[in-house]
């Protein structure tokens, strides 16, 4: 989801995590493949969609957590083909930065239109920064029989389970872990 926090809170760069998977090319896209259990015959497979900053360390760590928990293969394709937004775009204090920030939700991630056509169970772990009407739209779509789960983490900021996760801060790490546990529960229920 796009919101004001998306345009103003810089991502946290940790660089301390060692990925447990490997990078390979799938369908022409550089893709992180987390198969930490080594189960090549896994019937549980997840494609991880991340935020505007691309393949952040925290996202890769989350993919490894889900792969381990679910005995699944988690793929994180570089849909931006190396053209994700760089961290120095925050704050958007030049016309060029503002244009680049505005381009993403208007083109690549038109969220309000995308959620209207959901046809599979879907999970939304929103932060306090997400527009309440958009979160409500997801909840209403899910309640029409498509299934899923929506929760707002009222103490967390936009990107708290992605590139903005501050894993050095105890409360942030605890909520990051709780969020990935919720994702694990959701996928365990919906992939079986």
Automatic annotation (TrEMBL):
It comes from the Eukaryota. PANTHER family: DIENELACTONE HYDROLASE DOMAIN-CONTAINING PROTEIN-RELATED, DIENELACTONE HYDROLASE FAMILY PROTEIN (AFU_ORTHOLOGUE AFUA_6G01940). This is Dienelactone hydrolase domain-containing protein.
